[in-house]
Amino acid sequence: MIRHIAVESRMHVSLCVEGHEAIQGGGGAVGGMLGAFKKDTLMDLEFGSQFTTKPMKACLPHERLFQGETDGSSFPNGGLRVTHSAAAFTTWDRSSPPFVTDCCLYIPCAFITHFGKCIDEKTPLLRSMDAVKTHGLRLLQAIGIGKDAQTMHSYLGWEQEFFVLSADHFKARPDLVNCGRTLFGKLPTRHQQGDLNYFQAIPGKVQELLDVAQAEMLKIGCPMAVKHNEVAPGQHEMSPVFRTANVSCDSNVCFMEVMNREAAKLGLQVLFHEKPFAGINGSGKHANWSIGTDTGLNFFYPGKNEDGAKLYVTAIACLAYGLAQYNEMVRCTVASAGNDHRLGAQEAPPAIISLYPGQGFESFVDSVVSGGDLLGYKAEKKKQETGCSSAMHIEANVEDRNRTAPFPFCGNRFEFRAVGSSQNCCLPIMVCNAVMSAGMSHMASLIEGGMSHRDAVAQVFKENKHVIFTGNGYSAEWPVEASKRGLPNLNTTPKAIATWSSEKNTKLLETLKIYTKEETEARQEVMYENYISCICCEVETMIQMVETGFVPACAKDLAKYNSVDKLDGSRKAVYENVVDQVEKLQAVYKAKPHTSLAEEATYLCDTVKMQMLALRAAVDKAETMIETSLYPFPTYEQMIYSHHF
Questions:
Q1: Which of 180, 309, 316, 624 could form a disulfide with 28 if both were Cys (CB 3.0 to 4.6 A apart)?
Q2: Which residues pair with 82 in a beta bridge?
Q3: End-to-end alpha-carbon separation of the chain, Å?
Q4: Are 416 and 408 in contact (CB under 8 A)?
Q5: DSSP assignment of 263-322, as one string?
């Protein structure tokens, strides 16, 4: 959450909290919440005045500056707050600098209840950063490397993907307004077959938007490093410079809000949904994550000296332990209705969580397990010639890039590629910190118990190397192989959420002082509610669009062929199928159970979504026959391309 305060008479103070998405996976929809804020003015009554009618004064009392109180029951809270016990408090996150914009001082905050329970995204992240510090320093002492370090940090660099379209087209599509994605629509003739959009010139209006957003982000201390076209038409990406994890998460929330605000001024709309258009690539938010010390030691950088090399190998072993032992929890952090459209769909990593440290490193792991030394992994960059005299050689990382892996190594960090584009980064990075802390704690315990550094690393690799996979994650063989290795394939959000509050996960989060058992269970309830709300909103929007838009349009179109049966073709059967399918959807939706959140979510996923797909197929078929002027909503072709010209 962010809190606003004023320095001038026009200025306010705002306490900002990073909240849950109102409907996770609904990025771009009206009402989607990433950050929440409350504004206060710097005005108060002068109670010390002798006059009966007290005059106003400008003031900045510290109790209002650093703490705020509000209603916590109106936020998603999993039962931690109710109407008769609603108090919740904001408190300044002192490690994330305040900033001024539009004559308003923004103060990044944590958000807790009257009893200290967290109901935001940021507080657990801050707790996990403390866990990294505690267990990272303990590990360094155990292995005798970097013992002069005083603290540790986790770092994040996000890559935000998004679509841009005309605001007029957005407003004319109830599915985009309500859900952030199109529920109907056939692909245009030209889409992404030839990868013609990737790295091409950015359209003028979009370039103007990105330039303004870049300038606005720089004003609040977040320099943007990269911007480019993505693979799908109408899709783009921007990325900032790396920062500490909590500050970077704050910046991402600000960026998404800046993009929406500035796009509106230009007659554009930004879509952050993971899959706004069927049939073309969706959007993700790759989270480039690392941990390091205040003395400059990066745990994920293959150092140039012996200590650096040993630390790198040790850190990968710790990460392998965390991903293997808490695989389901990592998967759960990227589970949402929107992300279900991407994970495992040949455009994003599979729903199976695995670690890609590189093929060369995988062979090195085998040698360590077999008794080899921790030194010997050759991480030097290699020179590659271009084969022409006018272009100089390039220096490539020793390991190739694997875009099918959910956790690939990228030279000095790991890239969590499964994060959804509409998500707040806090939860995925919190769990990355948590599982890494678990691995570092386990490794330190082995060494403190008398095992040598080498033997401890070898044992951890031996017990957890089944999570290391360097092959093609898109292949049909990988799910079969993953099953043999004991890696879960939680390919839907309800399956993933069901594992969140397992005894093992709850114990870890309690041990690391990130969540209490009550907080873990509350978070699971919020996850279920988000999923259910999203699917229900989509169903009701589909029914509304069919009954008030598509059916009347089909009727008008069919009436034109009453006197010429030959021209009718299969229209009558196709249009009647639309009516049949919407009636079936209404029936299965009405039959959804209300016995428990888990049962309702599973029913929506396994039964209702199947009928949603059947209705969509019927409507999209009708679109290929209906007269263009009668089609009731902007088409894919209009939405994707019109703002480019």
A1: 180
A2: 85
A3: 38
A4: no
A5: HHHTTEEEE--S-SSTTS---BEEEEEEEEETTS-BTTS--SSHHHHHHHHHHHHHHHHH
| CA–CA distance, 526 with 59 (Å, rounded to integer) | 38
**Pairing of β 12-18 and β 104-106:** parallel
SS3 at position 59: coil
Q: What is the rounded distance in angstroms from the CA atom of residue 412 to the CA atom of residue 288? A: 9
Question: Residues 208-263: pLDDT tens digits?
Answer: 999 999 999 999 999 999 998 888 888 999 999 999 999 999 999 999 999 999 99
- Domain 2-120: top CATH class: alpha beta
d(CA 379, CA 397): 8
- Where in the sequence of the chain do the CATH 1.20.120.1560 domains occur? 528-644
Residue range(s) occupied by CATH 3.30.590.10 in the chain: 127-178+199-379+394-515
Q: Which helix (H) or strand (E) is 43 found in, with range? A: strand 43-45
Per-residue pLDDT tens over the stretch 75-123: 777 777 666 777 777 888 899 988 888 888 888 998 888 888 888 899 9
Look at 359 and 442; give whichever has higher pLDDT.
442
Please give the average per-residue pLDDT across 116-139, as a whole number: 95
Of 345, 420, 415, nearest to 160 by C-alpha is 420
* Nearest residue to 192 (alpha-carbon basis) of 282, 277, 278, 280: 280
Q: How many C-beta neighbours within 10 Å does residue 453 have?
A: 18
Q: What's the distance, CA 609 to chain centroid? A: 22
Q: How far apart are CA 568 and CA 497, in angstroms?
A: 48
Q: pLDDT tens digits, residue range 22-68? A: 344 455 454 455 667 777 777 778 888 888 888 888 877 777 778 88
Which two structure tokens, joined as six digits, stand for 168? 């007029």
Residues in the chain: 645
CB 191 within 8 A of CB 169: no
Query: How far is it, in rounded angstroms, from Cα 13 to Cα 7?
Result: 9
Cα–Cα nearest to 151, from 304, 309, 296? 296
Between the CA of residue 270 and those of 262, 338, 578, 640, what are the distances in Å?
Answer: 10, 16, 30, 12
CATH 3.40.720.10 for the 528-644 domain, yes or no: no
CA atoms within 13 A on the CB side of 558: 14
Alpha-carbon distance 158 to 624, whole Å? 39
CA 308 vs CA 144, 293, 315: distances in Å:
12, 12, 10
d(CA 253, CA 612): 31
For a pLDDT cut of 70, what percent of the chain falls above it? 91
The fold of 127-178+199-379+394-515 is: Creatine Kinase; Chain A, domain 2 (3.30.590)
Comparing CA positions, the residue from 615, 265, 332 lying closest to residue 494 is 332
